[in-house]
Amino acid sequence: MIVCTTADISKELQKWVMEETECKVVQKKLPMLESNEKYDAQYLLTYGNFDDEIKAEELKQLPNLKWIHVLSSGTEQLPESVITEKGILITSSKGIHAIPISEYVLYAILHFAKKNTEFRKLQDEMKWSYTLDMSEIHGKTLGVLGTGAIGSDIAKKAKTFGMNVIGVNRSGRRPAEFDQIYIIEQLKEMVPLCDYICCVLPSTEETTNLIDKETISLMKDQVIFINVGRGDIVIEEDLVKALTTGKIRGAALDVFKNEPLKAEHPFWSMENVLVTPHASARSNMYMNRAIKLFLKNYQHFQKKQYDDMINKVTF
Are strands 248-253 and 2-5 parallel, antiparallel or unpaired? Predict the structure, then answer.
């Protein structure tokens, strides 16, 4: 039996997988597998997107593949039809991103509150000035769109800074970390209350283009907008206009409608925009957590306890 990984995994983590599963670990893109490796591959670790894309024809060449564990939270990038046809089990790494993404969001809030860009400019110019004031985030209101594991960890960290945290979700259920919850249909009632707005929502029909010019017009003047969810939640042209006019004072953007972000996109050159290349979840602990989750699920898989597997995905 083979555990195939199309993603780069350290030798140390490969050894851990071999010891826990008693399987050979092969790190190759699917087209590069030898015929015997394609036959023996029963488990696949992959991101499934960008340069790690998994194609339907490639999966058809793995006759004994039983389970794909996706090393990211999203699974919409996988070829659904062939997976359904072959009865391949799918799990994701949803939830392991909570710590690094929540840290990124607090960093972004402080980046704008403490005017990091402006002070960096003073340093570059070697100017000593008492005219530039920082802002406090204590007592400010943070709105978090999405109250799952990531949103809740953001709220928990924000509360330690004395922020008031309100959230938006579909159910209306209030996790303990939040002061108040609105359902998604009440978004336009919630955004005028926020000094900072952070989006961690997934990409669905309901969330696509959720942040448009009408929603932006209802936000507080000088609001800070942070997106670590999905790029298609925002109509980027409307966001650019709001950033240009100052309606939105600044934005930290880690996700975009089209990735990689094209060099000619205005976000790159806007002084009030912090651009990161879908990096908020990436940390030196990321792969460790993903493999730990895979191995925990492997124990359930071996015992045929499929319903107990974490983050099981049904198309």
Answer: unpaired
